[in-house]
Amino acid sequence: MTEPFSTTRRRLLQFGGAAGLAAAANSLAAPGAAAATASSRGPRTTVTDLGPAVVQYSLMSGLLVGDTVYIGSRNLAPARVIGFHLPTRKVVSVTDLDAAPDPTIQALAADPTGRYLYIGVLLKGDQGKPNLFRWDLTTPDKPAVGIGRTGADRDIRALAVAPDGTVYAVGGVTGTPPALWEYDPATGATTSLGVANPLATEAEAVAATDTAVFVGSGSVLVGGGDASKAALFAFDRTKRTFTSVVPKEMEQDPSLRCLGVVGGNLVVGTSGGVDPAKLAVMDLADLSSYTVVSVNGTTAKCFTADTDRIYFATDTGVYSYSLADKAVSAVEFDGPDLGEIWGVDHTDGKLEVVSAYGFVAEIDLAAGTSVITDLGTAGAPADAEAGMGIAAGGGYVYVGGTGTLARHDLRSGAVVNLRAPGEVKDAEVIGGRLYTGQYDALGIWEYDPRAGGQPHQIAQFPSVQNRPMDTSWDPANKLLLLGVQSDTEGGGALWTYAPRTGKSTSYVNPIDSVQLVAAVANRDGVAYLGGDNEAATGARGTVVAVDPVTGRELWRLETGQQKGVTALAVQGRHLYGLTRDGVLFVIDLHTRQLLHTADVSSVSRGYAALVTNRGTVYGVSITTLFRFHPKTFAVSTVVPGINGIWYSEPHVNAHDGKLYTLRGHNLVEVDDRPPR
Fold it and tell me: How far lies 149's CA from each of 1, 81, 133, 461, in Å?
């Protein structure tokens, strides 16, 4: 998708001094406001608005009801569901949800009559609003209505409707064991049925029959330590009790990812660790009778079936399981890469596949052909979505979205969406080429704008090292450095990649077995790693110096910070670090001592990012773009109220002396001349 650039959409804002900051705050809050200059003295800052960072119909769920595929949005505000009509290949209905903030729809389920579509929402925070909605599909012009909320279990990740119309929901939120929730359409009551697995960090799977509800859970996030591996429980709807029924072959997988009732079978998929994911087909009449097979990929999900086969998705494509010979085979077809798949349904010898790339693929199983329909072309309302990683260089700025990279041309202003599966967590431009760290467990990808085409994978690592956090280019060793988190096992890794040779290396747990590598910086061939810990207890805040060529530890320093490191940057002989509770610390790299600490929570709380530009360390938080004085380390505001809309952590990147980050949903270029 290409968005024509209009110079009228660029807004130039200049300000200096305290009065200028106030004027700029007012101007930034009003799109289209005229330029304002408050003072000719002191630092001068220019902010140029480059327009929405990433625009698409971003999605995270798909379900066929009748002749329409309903598709839930991701990272869009408001959250919405569209109805994609198969006979016409057009979007024929849309409903917006009154859910906030930053909502995403991962869970969809239909009642047995096909009249109601139930919608479960993921939220970044709880404002007391419903997270369970119902849309009457007989009156699609009327919006979905909120019908319930799952208490402290803020996120709904899976829904199921029993044959009698009772709705079941699971999900959870970090720090709270996930419960099974029940919505009774007769009474309108939403009730917790209790926690089946108190050691689980998340539940992503639920299925229901007349007599039982099945709950799948594990440690997709915040794993390691005592966190549960894959678990499957049957809830007796009459006795109101839970019983573990997990196949023993699945017990060591990190999590149970998906459940489905297909005929007389319960179909079970896991998220794999070092080993591939697994698929189990269990006899509902006798759950001890089952078959387990390994699949090609790290996740097995999105089950559907015909009379002979069960179809499902992994991160590598669409597959089928033969009920007769109990074998798995790839579904071959003539279409493009499907990327991350969020829906697979079977109808009349065809599969309807919902791709995070923003299209629906209809695959004719007999002919091996496909029809691809872009949802934007079909009428899906495209919006600016929450941003992810950001990188600038070679005349372009790249901003990550869901399944996409938006490439902004700094000369013409043209914006092109490139396909990149999963999520770009952070990125660097090196020699004109873009290098990205891709979540989930997708390694390192490369894109060369001079060659054209699409981004492609250049390095793969064990899937347990799944979440890239931070990137840094080491010019001395000519290595790309990436800090990584292991969601399922705890701890993390340092990845390195040499663009010249194509060699990649992974050093697992370079800080310790519980601290992820949340931040990476480098100077003179030494990599500096900052530790954090997603668990409630355990070590955090350690800084380790490492030789990135050998992985050998050179020295370490305990900063004593209780909230963990969120960002690092080097300027001169000083290593700057930020913590999640807004503490700046500075380490003298010559003496290897902690030189300075300060409370900077007025400009930075939670996750933040640091970058060095024009001899000064800059930072961005959710609220503010700021800088530190290179001699006194005093913090000052550069752009107040920047309020970038990020899916995860804020990012800032530098190129040719300019800074690039988000203000709201928009990409901005900041030209700042700091005082000396």
Answer: 37, 18, 9, 39
pLDDT given for residue 31 in this prediction: 39
The pairing of strands 616-620 and 625-628 is: antiparallel
**For position 157, what pLDDT does the model report?**
97
Beta bridge mates, 495:
482, 506
In which element (H, E) is residue 170 found?
Answer: strand 167-172
* Average predicted confidence (pLDDT) for the chain: 92
Cα gap 439→666, rounded to integer Å: 23
Q: Produce one character per residue of 590-599: b if its CB has 16 or more CB atoms within 10 Å, e if not.
A: eeeebeebee
**Domain segments of the chain: what residues?**
2-53+390-673, 55-149
CA nearest neighbour of 655 among 330, 391, 425: 391
Cα–Cα distance for residue pair 663/444, rounded to 1 Å: 27
pTM above 0.85, yes or no: yes
- The per-residue pLDDT for range 389-423, each reduced to its tens digit, is 999 999 999 999 999 999 999 999 999 999 999 99
The CA dihedral of 252, 258, 261, 266, to the nearest 10 degrees, is -10
Picking from 324, 387, 335, the residue whose alpha carbon sits closest to that of residue 362 is 335
Per-residue DSSP letter, 329: E
SS3 364: strand
Tokens standing for residue 445: 């990808």
Distance CA 533, CA 526 (A): 23
- Beta-carbon-side half-sphere exposure of residue 359 (alpha carbons within 13 Å): 18
Q: In DSSP terms, which residues pair with 48 in a beta bridge?
A: 12, 669
CB distance 62 to 354 below 8 Å: yes
The secondary structure of 246-313, three-state, reads CCHHHCCCCEEEEEEEECCEEEEEEECCCCCCEEEEEECCEEEEEEEEECCCCECEEEEECCCEEEEE
Q: Which residues contact 114 (CB under 8 A, 6 or more apart)?
A: 65, 66, 137
Record: fold of 2-53+390-673: Methylamine Dehydrogenase; Chain H (2.130.10)
pLDDT digits (tens, 9 = 90+) for 259-293: 999 999 999 999 987 789 999 999 999 999 999 99
